[in-house]
Sequence to fold (130 residues):
Amino acid sequence: MKILVVGSGGREHTLVWKFVQEGTLTGTSNNTVYCIPGNGGISQIAQCVNIGLNKFDEIKNFVRQNKIDITVVGPEVPLADGIVDSFQEQGLKIFGPNKTAAQLESSKSFAKMFMKKYDMPTAEFEIFDN
Fold:
């Protein structure tokens, strides 16, 4: 299976390591793992590709050209910017929340309002815009 991990932090390093080590998604050790953009540690165990996290069209072109089976996104910024929605619109397989759902992590005010709306326990809060 060909897997692309998007991100450059410790979370992504762990995902790449696990996919390489155990073939987690397929039950085999025959995974080919890429990482965009990756980091020095990731480059020791997988192929890093120098594409910016916000370059969705370039990432999708890489996915098509390399016949990636699934893309896994770690960082919240591309998720909040809609990378999952962009991939799904073109029928590309991707794991992560869509732009709306990602707001629960990327926007603390959205998350607090969501919790209040649905009577979820949360600490008292105020929202300020300046």
Observations:
- The domain at 2-105 is CATH 3.40.50.20 (Rossmann fold).
- The chain has a mean pLDDT of 93.
- Residues 5 and 35 are 5 Å apart (CA to CA).
- The beta strands are 2-7, 32-37, 47-48, 70-73, 94-95.
